[in-house]
Amino acid sequence: MTLWESLFRENGRPAGALETAERTVSCATLASASCLAGKLDALRGRNVVVGVQSQLTAGLLLIELDGIARRMVICPPGTAREHLSYVLQTSECDVWIGDGDPSLEPAGKLLRLEASELPIPCAVKRERQLDSEWVLLTSGTTGVPKLVRHTLSSLLNFIDAAGPRTTWSTFYDIRRYGGLQIFLRALLGGSLVLSSPNESTEAFIERAAAHHVSHISGTPSHWRKALMSGAADRFAPAYVRLSGEIADQGILDGLRAAFPSALVAHAFASTEAGVAFEVEDGLSGFPDTLVGERRHGVELDVSGGTLRIRSPGNALGYLGDVPALRDSDGFVNTGDRLDLRDGRYHFMGRTGGVINVGGLKVHPEEVEAVINAHPAVRVSLVKARRNPITGAVVTADVVLETQVSGAADPAREQTVRQEILVACRASLAAHKVPALIHFVPSLAVSPSGKLVRPNA
Amino acid sequence: MSIRSEITTLFEEVARDQQRQLVPLRDETKLLESGLDSLSFALIAARLEESMGFNPFDTADEFPVTFGDFIRLYESQTQSS
Which domains does chain A have, with CATH numbers? Predict the structure, then answer.
């Protein structure tokens, strides 16, 4: 069943709506209006990139295109223009749907369509044509996005059939996996209040309260910012959800204190593995009884020390010439290391050392390459340090050439520290620049000659 | 150096490093209206943990909302430790 058919099946008119700070668009509008008025027919069976800037328009286009396009590639906001030609080529897309700003469009021979921000009245013919593929982008090792293939069915795996009507909201953009889950949940059972990139956290929370949002999701970093905004006491949701980063006990306790009448739940999900579980007991980590249960067909495996997930909610795979998504057993290895204590699994960081700074990934090697380019540096090791605001920050242990032979020189260290930071700020995104740099006499090297990484 | 002056200096340093426009800091200044972003606060917390040796967020009852709250969070833990 397509998203359109799910929305319009009961009584023919969906009651849900998408709401922004400026306007509300009822899903029922799409029965006789379109953001691609007169152009939708031309997209049947084709591979299209949804590259519009407006989150509202993107949401409407997903409803319109599912079942029509063979493949929809969903560009999240901020997708670098220099990566678009790779995205188009890898996904074999020849249609670009933008909102009319040529400076944001990719080069090359394409069918270029301009979506209207809001649906324009027109005749809408819906014949179910095909099961569309939904392709999401995640950040890869080198900054080039990875293209992750889903179907509507895999995206909906953890979503129960519609219950009572609910007004949802999310700090996420709906073009990322965490936000897309909420978009689909909301549409199938109510309405969705969309966040806005230009709105303060306080204004967004006040708007959510004014729109009677009862269910709301975000990352732990979103929620820490919400608690720091001071607006939480003007909002009384019934359900507060965290996902996208590991929820520590501090943020769970903070939310329980701020929203005493809410159920605070944290979910484990990734674009590749899908939603694995939800925990509602207010404690960080998850009970070991979840391993072996098969809620929504999700199998968890922890035997290798990391969390592996085999589920109908797994992505189908990656597009392009990248390593396979699943291992030989058909599991997706999340790379999240676990420790079992007192009947509960706790997250201990990631294999390979990938650092999650407020929901943004950092690959240590990328930062080390910049540090190691400094002429005074012999070698460096970049790692995560726990942080109460963003979950983690990046730190670097640096061995200087001079330290090999002589004693530490604080004045020189301070100079080199500043020079390293200047170099990092010039070539790396702000969240990748080390928060702290420590000079150390040496770093451990394994028998195979590699740096010993704390989380490897 | 007092905790207040150490924290004030750190806010100014991080704002400069992150190229953010810091508003004049008063006790009632809301943190999210100070001109700093989440990453800036993360850097401040990391550096304070380095210099003071503790992270008061772990045991705090609630998150600080104003600059005054932020200073009291660190001062209270210093007095109690």
Answer: 3-336 (3.40.50.12780), 355-439 (3.30.300.30)
